[in-house]
Amino acid sequence: MATINTLILVCLGYVIFLFAVAFAADRMAAAGRGKWLRSPLIYTLSLSIYCTAWTFYGAVGNAARSGLEFVTIYLGPTLVMVSWWWGLRKLVRVGRSQRVTSIADLLSSRYGKSNTLAVCVTVLAVLGGTPYIALQLQSITLSFSIFAEADPSGLYREGSSVFWMAAGLAVFAILFGTRNLDVNERHHGVVTAIAVEAVVKLFALIAVGVFVVWGIAGGVGPMMERIDASEIGQWNVDAGRWTTFIFLSAAAFICLPRMFQVMVVENDDESHLRTAAWAFPLYLLLMSLFVVPIAVVGLDLLPEGANPDLFVLTVPLSQGNDWLAMLSFIGGFSSATSMVIVSAMALSTMVSNHVVMPIWLNTHEGTGSVSGDVRSIVLVARRVSIAVIMALGYFYYRLSGGGAALASIGLIAFAGISQILPALVGGLFWRGATRTGALVGLSVGFALWIYTLLLPGMGAPWMPDAVMQNGPFGLAWLRPHALFGIEGIDPMVHTVMWSLSLNTIAFCIASLLSFPSPLERLQGAQFVNVFDHSVSPGGWSGSVAQSEDLMIMTQRILGAAPAQEFFQAEAEKQGGRSHMPEPTPGFLNRLERELSGSVGTATAHAMIAQIVGGSSVSVEDLLAVADESAQLLEYSGKLEEKSSELSRTARQLREANTKLTQISEQKDSFLSQVSHELRTPMTSIRAFSEIMRDTEGLSREEQTRYAAIIHDEALRLTRLLDDLLDLSVLENGQVNLNLSDESLRSVLDRAVSSALAGAERKITVRRTLTAERMSLHTDLDRLGQVFINLISNAQKYCDAEEPVLVISAHDVGGRVIIDFIDNGSGIPPGARSMVFEKFARVGVDKAGGAGLGLAICREIMQRLGGEITYLTGQGGAAFRVSLPLAFQQAAQ
Ligand code: ADP
């Protein structure tokens, strides 16, 4: 007997060989060599992951227990391949044109890119897939244990060996299944390794079969006799179970995530299906050819109670044919590992794309704008998901104790996963199918599957006996194995019948009652009419009508003239029959390149795809588009920043320029005003001094009069120059304030007497002396100057018959307010805002002022931290002076 250690060595060697095959295939594909990697044969062989360890060992066990029923598991896929290959072709076409990554992605894409639906399918797939992975681990353990029993001294330890096996498979799936993200890039390594395993397991089973028929039974004739003599040979067909199982395996063949992975995602060329349509049934036929002989001989040879699930191993062993047993072991090992690897890949894609990534994107909103970043996250998510799924499978195996409970898992998983069928087939062929319909149907089917099959299979406490016997809350019509009171049906048939029919009915009714979103309708049309819409694989194509749309889009991107030029040139290239080129693949590819320069390749591809309807946008496309737009946005953001900075500078320059112009204008008008003001007194001084010089015999009286005029004018000049000087000092801020304390009353007393001194007809000044008691701390001379100006203005300009000036004062919150209101006709409204400007005079100035007084007042008040304003609605001219009681430096 071969030792267990030899077996472990052979196993390790086989795994290393698989790694090498996968590695070499990946290298060849990357280098563009190895056309055979994409041959229909490899595709067909990769489909063989349908035959897991459960079929490799289990078919014989099944035959030993229930006769020919095992055939149903092979008949289902055969029927699909032979009679429904056109449906599969549609599935593959949709998968490629929509660039789907998994069956969850396909459903989500069909039903308006709904992630809820994707999550549902993912949960369903993981729930059904994990025990299935556990089942593979169990089969490997069981087969190991056969050898270990005979050689207990070997290296093999059940617990740790399973763990290392699971870890090794995870590493394989991670290494070869997540090399890159692009779904267009196939996993040639994995697929080739699986094809090799397909050959190995077929060869192993046939070798055992040949040994049994010719080595043990002694040829075909005696074998047939043995079969006829055994119970298996009896044609015992339970029509209900047969139909159900055929249907179930057909449905699972279409819906299983791992089958979808190899059949649709890894498909290189639709035409491969044509070969697979006959070659795969042939493969299944060969796989099932020797099942019955092995079972019959096993039952004959081996003692009662021997596990028929292991006959493939134990029959050669019992005959001392160790090497054949080892080959058979490798066959079973191959079936298990290939299934586990592809399942882990398919499930991890779903988990990472529909569960991990949405959560990650939600929690990291805004930070993942660069897709390079997101891409590496997706890869990490996929790798972690593979590890987690393998870990789940491993723990399920440990927890379930690896016992007989696992044996029925295969069919239970089939029944669970086939709940996807109505939504899938409906989505492919019925435009009216809606997301709500799919969700409702799936939930109904899923719930029934859990209630009638999964939980009862797990027994108490998951499903208490009381519920099984009498139904929940004593409702007999809800008993898990006799829904609606229909009893006596096989549990599996019962579940499949109720769950799938109610699932389909719910799906149809909810679809009819709900209204699809625009995206759903669009996707629905693309799926159902995929053969009208989609492109032939590998390139673009489109109809002439689309050229105009393309033209419009191109104009928007490149600008009108370059776009027209490009289209013109293309049309000429095509023979120039019309001004619009036909959207041939060549043209579309060139257009894509042309547009790529402006908007990036991904965006260009997505935009053209939208118009020619070739393929819709995948997650990867969107990530790439997002990346490009993020860069564009960043770039345009920078440009915007620059341009707003420039416009800010330009505005500042404009403002400075206007200010300078204003200042220059002010200076000009100021100079002309000043020269005008100077010229008037100068002219009279010159005139009268000339008269005095040149006229002889002027009387004394005349001389005195003229000299007085000259004196007055000179005084006026001096005053004007004084004022100008004062104003320029104030305006330049070169004033030194002379702060001191005194009561307002004293300041006003001095101002009144000084303003009225020497006047002929004095204005009456009314004051409320008690109100002027407050003490001021400020530059009192400057404040007095303001008061004098206001009082003398009233004296000069008040035109009332009996001129009166009322000066009233009061203090509010640390400030004092002094109003000067006379009873003259005041200043007309239009001139009020102007009187504080330099040289501003209202009407004909009888008093001969230069119009600088109020301007000086305004400057002084500003220096003192106060202000002077004109008060409206007071009858006569009214000015209000307000200032802080105590001067504060900050107010300056
Ligand atoms: P000026 O130094 O020539 O007196 P102001 O700047 O003090 O000039 O005053 C400007 C103009 O405001 C004066 O020409 C006068 O027409 C008008 N004005 C000032 N105060 C009064 C007033 N109390 N009543 C009527 N008009 C006044």
Automatic annotation (TrEMBL):
Q: Which organism is it from?
A: Ruegeria atlantica
Q: Which UniProt keywords apply?
A: Coiled coil, Kinase, Membrane, Phosphoprotein, Transferase, Transmembrane, Transmembrane helix, Two-component regulatory system
Sorted alphabetically, which Gene3D superfamilies does this protein's record hold?
1.10.287.130, Histidine kinase-like ATPase, C-terminal domain, Sodium/glucose cotransporter
Parts forming coiled coils: 636-666
Where in the numbering of this chain does the Histidine kinase domain appear? 673-887
Entry's localization field: Membrane
What would you give as a GO molecular function for this chain, any one? Answer: phosphorelay sensor kinase activity
User: Which Pfam families does the record associate with it?
Assistant: HATPase_c (PF02518), HisKA (PF00512)
- Give the family, as the similarity comment puts it: Belongs to the sodium:solute symporter (SSF) (TC 2.A.21) family.
Q: Which chemical reaction does it catalyze?
A: ATP + protein L-histidine = ADP + protein N-phospho-L-histidine
Enzyme Commission designation: 2.7.13.3
* Major place of residence: membrane
Q: How does it sit in the membrane?
A: Multi-pass membrane protein
Name the enzyme's class: transferase
**Protein name as annotated:** histidine kinase
Report the GO terms under cellular component. Answer: membrane
What residue intervals traverse the membrane?
Answer: 6-29, 41-59, 71-88, 116-135, 161-178, 190-217, 245-265, 277-303, 323-347, 377-397, 403-430, 437-458
